[in-house]
Amino acid sequence: MLTENSPFADAASIDRHLGNMAKLNEIQSKIFGIRPTSRDQLPFEEEPAKPDQLPYLFEGDIVLTDEQMETILRPLQFLHRNTEEQLLSKNGGIRERRSLTSDLYGRWQTFPIPYYINTGSGVSESAVLAGVKVWETETCLSFRRQPSRTRGNGLEFFLGNGCFSMVGRVGFTFQQVSIGFGCTSLGIVAHEIGTPISVPVQFDGHALGFYHEQSRYDRDKYVRMLTGNIQNGYVAQFTRQSRRSMEDYGVGYDYGSVMHYGQFSFSQNGLPTINTIDTDYQQTIGQRGGPSFMDVKRINLAYCNGTCSNTLPCLHGGYTDPKNCASCRCPTGFAGVVCDQAAPNPGVCGVGGRNATSSLQSISVSGAVSCSFVIKAIIDAYTITWIKDTVHCLNFTLFNCKLRAHSPPIFRFCRSRPKNSVSETNILVVLYRGSSNTAFTLSYRYGVVIYFLGFTL
């Protein structure tokens, strides 16, 4: 049934969309190697179990145009008959490293981006303003609020049935972004803006141009889809995009992206539908606290890369700040012009920069405070940590640890039993985001890397 707040223009567009979703579900089932199941009726009139998991929309919260749906279906129809290598040879090669929309969806060309908050629909004005402010603060993008829809492109925020948005700039009119009940957290609003803005992000990352992170073409290196736990007829919500449809800007897969599904998304039995290949990141996926460092970095590289005439030699995954060309934008835990220093801490946390030795040292923090620690060992050494008492992931209270070599997201610990870890390099980053009833103790020392006949011991 077509309602006032439907994301579709008419009954014919609904029929086309449902037919395409059925096609997508059948093809994706074959790719997963499972028997296709159908959904005879989609609950348009029911409140969704989760507002960002609408069963009749692509990936639960994305409204696709007919052209966008066709561009997604076409490579999948090849993939269920051919390997991706065969597909590459047929198409003369496909560009790598894509996660933002590239050729499929229009980028925003004119700034500031006009937006209209349809307060008459009941949408939360404060939630929208907070989401807009995040992207304006963190990126070079600008937005301009106006009292009504006008001619030309723009965003209209309204109270719809759930959270949804289009991907990228579509057509030559205002496109709707639904911030329904249950969608007003900062992370979800930022997620939905990112979709139409990026190329792509959900701003909702979707309005900016982002797909969901787990739909990246290279996702199979990082996550595994547990099809036996996915609701019947919903495997189309776990479609993997082709390489040519996404732009990554060299940022890489981000478990901590605000655009990533949670581990229980579309579960039929309360068990995970997504497992991370590296189990340390299982608790990281699905965060909705706000855009990650890498989410913001992608938008800045997509839209702001020409802002600064100089490029600084930023360390630890940092990049030249488009809002201050004389300094780098540093990942959490680092500071300094080129991200070569530990970020300052509140006094209760203690000093942020720590040097590991061969003797065991400890860090203990408790309560509602944010702390970051950069623990360095001598070159050709690694850091061994023993986490004695860690926090529970309650209300986005985080205890995070970066052990990996390059700049993947820091992973989250949510456990009360001890956890032993070894870093891949001589630098370990630890973040604590506490509440009144949380605490942790971490002990650390270094171990020496010994090279013997070409092997590392």
Automatic annotation (TrEMBL):
Where in this chain does the record put each Peptidase M12A domain? Answer: 98-305
Q: Which residues form the signal peptide?
A: none
Q: Which GO terms describe its cellular component?
A: extracellular region
Pfam families of this UniProt entry?
Astacin
Q: Which terms does the UniProt entry file under GO BP?
A: molting cycle, collagen and cuticulin-based cuticle; proteolysis
Location(s), subcellular: Secreted
Q: Which cofactor does it need?
A: Zn(2+)
Q: Which Gene3D superfamilies match?
A: Collagenase (Catalytic Domain) (3.40.390.10)
- Cofactor, free-text remark: Binds 1 zinc ion per subunit.
InterPro entries in the record = Astacin-like_dom, EGF, MetalloPept_cat_dom_sf, Metallopeptidase_nem, Peptidase_M12A, Peptidase_Metallo
- Key words, A-Z: Disulfide bond, Glycoprotein, Hydrolase, Metal-binding, Metalloprotease, Protease, Secreted, Signal, Zinc
User: Which GO MF terms are attached to this record?
Assistant: metalloendopeptidase activity; zinc ion binding
Record CDD domains: ZnMc_astacin_like
Name of the protein described by the UniProt record: Zinc metalloproteinase
